[in-house]
Every structure is written in structure tokens, then in C-alpha cells.
Amino acid sequence: MSDDLADKRRAYVATIRSLYRKERAFGFLASLAGVLLLIWGREVPGAPAWATPTGLLVIGAGWLLFAYVIVRRTRYVRTHPFDPQS
């Protein structure tokens, strides 16, 4: 593979990886916050009763955001396939 083609492929992969970076970070932080809320609700005596279900909902929201990013990136790749001639 020529260096020019390898550079184009690296740029294409870098573009795909940079798509929806904020959403992925927010999904990760939501999942982390949900896990911490879940642990707090289950392990700490005197924690409010709403902490555990809220933690589960926040984890679910984070994972839904991950699924959204996967779908959007897949759509992008299908509409912008790697073309070495471009």
C-alpha cells in the first residue's frame, strides 16, 4: 500500500473516531454517575429510596446514548465509504 493511500485511510479512520465524541463522553459520564448513584443507594445506610432506581435510569440513559452514537456512526460510514480516489 502506498504512503498516500495509507495517509488517506488514517485520515478517514481519524474522522470516524472523532464523530460524536461529546456524546460518547457524556454517555460514559452518565454511566459512571449512575453506577456511583446505584452504589450509594444500595450500600450507604440512610440513603434515600430514590437513589437506586434513579441510578439504574441514568445507567440506561448512558447506554442509550452509546447505542445512538453507534447507529449514527454506522450511518455515516455507509453514506461516506472509504474511497481512495477522493
Q: What this model shows, in words?
A:
The protein is mainly alpha-helical and 86 residues long. It has one domain (1-79). Helices cover 79% and strands 0% of the residues. The chain is built from 3 helices and no strands. It has helices at residues 3-18, 21-43, 51-79. The mean pLDDT is 92. Keywords: Membrane, Transmembrane, Transmembrane helix. The chain crosses the membrane at residues 25-41, 47-71.
Secondary-structure blueprint of this entry?
Blueprint: H1 3-18, H2 21-43, H3 51-79
For this entry, give a set of tags.
transmembrane helix, transmembrane, 86 residues, 3 helices, membrane, mainly alpha
Q: Strand-residue fraction?
A: under 5%
Helix content: over 70%
Taking the alpha carbons of the first and last residues, their distance comes to: 16 Å
Let me know the number of strands: 0
**Main sheet, how many strands, which sense, barrel?**
none
Given as residue ranges, the uncertain stretches (5+ residues, pLDDT < 50) are none
What count of structural domains?
1
How confident is the prediction overall: mean pLDDT? 92
Q: Assign the structural class, choosing from mainly alpha, mainly beta, alpha/beta, alpha+beta, or little secondary structure.
A: mainly alpha
Helix count? 3
Shape: elongated
SSE order, as H and E? HHH
Structural Rg: 19 Å
Keywords: Membrane, Transmembrane, Transmembrane helix
Transmembrane segments: 25-41, 47-71
